[in-house]
């Protein structure tokens, strides 16, 4: 075993309110400057929708990530093909796919001469400085998600029947959820493999993927290779840039800006231990096995053999302790609640999502046979939830298959199309909710709550722990950040005679990891 540590994240989609506070915090710190106006290292998309940049999930257009070939994988775009297309890359998003950044001529409201008409502030481009017509923005789906140009163009609708897809947009059944995205800091990053100059690398101590600005030569192949489109080109300084997971903050024991400012407290950060020897095996497995295989290389931080292998690799005791206390490990492995985004890209992303439950609860009372529906109609002054939990478990679980967001849609997002992976996690979330209703409200029979937990493999203690970390967790529970041990890095630099990296921005790079 080659045990290494990785800073990883979980986003709980059932709690995201789409306020974009995380995006603004990131923008103000990292991309509020010339050449980066269009960049949103953190963005929040409305689903269904085409996202940012537009249709980023359609790899037939952008050729990002890896594809399986016999017993191995290769870059979809290919480094050789990228070099041949260096002067015209048809698979790289243009500014129109993102959006042309704009502001308004606010001084026109103040300095316009007196007249009969109210002055207006015309939009002007932040790139050219000229007046422009606004056609889209970074969160355009949030405003226009129901239109044919946006929501109905979502690539994740693939595989749904025409009736299922259209039902999602009927006014009385319309539903949406928010999908916040940052760089996944993958175990097998396509951007690292695609960079001809070797400017992109994974840090050995925490797995954060960075771009060395001194080495970057603006090939921009990382932009094409990243299937999540989280590498950007700065048109002002001629360098590629991306989310750095606020590593200066992490080294100081602080949470990344987007996570610190999150209003819904949907974000969790912690250490995972993984077996680097199995990266190739995992990334090149069959698509149907991708989720289980990726989760299997995340190792138990309490296992003595894993601990010995980790120490042999120089992982500090404090990092091992952080891995044992990691909220990410509990969500991903202990409770089996979180899934990676688009595992079929084979980059082994280290950002996991707890799928949304709300559409199930909103539609659950519509299920059942006619006799039960008549019973429901008679109880007009009684909570639907009270009636709901008095019905059989078969009817309750059956509504998951009939939810307003088809399981197929969520599976296309989080499990490479495997609906069973999403269904068991939604059932677990629903069982926890039923258990807590029994504990706090008492309108659900103990037998029903126990039966729901039993069918999902959860214990009452586990359900209470999930509830605690989801609803009651304090800052230190959500963000378990290990000490940086930068003194060891400085000793290494001193041994090699290179002190240029004292501030953490040195040119020395750890060996590239991934494929």
Automatic annotation (TrEMBL):
Primary localization class, coarse: other
PROSITE patterns: 4FE4S_FER_2 (PS51379)
Ranges of residues in domain 4Fe-4S ferredoxin-type: 7-36, 174-205, 207-236
Key words of the record: 3Fe-4S, 4Fe-4S, Electron transport, Iron, Iron-sulfur, Metal-binding, Repeat, Transport
UniProt-listed GO biological process terms: anaerobic respiration; nitrate metabolic process
Gene3D superfamilies cross-referenced by the UniProt entry: 3.30.70.20, nitrate reductase domain like
Family matches, as InterPro entries: 4Fe4S_Fe-S-bd (IPR017896), Nitr_red_bet_C (IPR029263), Nitr_red_bet_C_sf (IPR038262), NO3_Rdtase_bsu (IPR006547)
Subcellular location: Cell envelope
Highest rank taxon of the organism: Bacteria
Cellular component annotations (GO), alphabetically ordered: cell envelope; membrane; nitrate reductase complex
Protein name (database record): Nitrate reductase subunit beta
Source organism of this protein record: Candidatus Danuiimicrobium aquiferis
Lineage of source species: Bacteria, Pseudomonadati, Candidatus Omnitrophota, Candidatus Danuiimicrobium
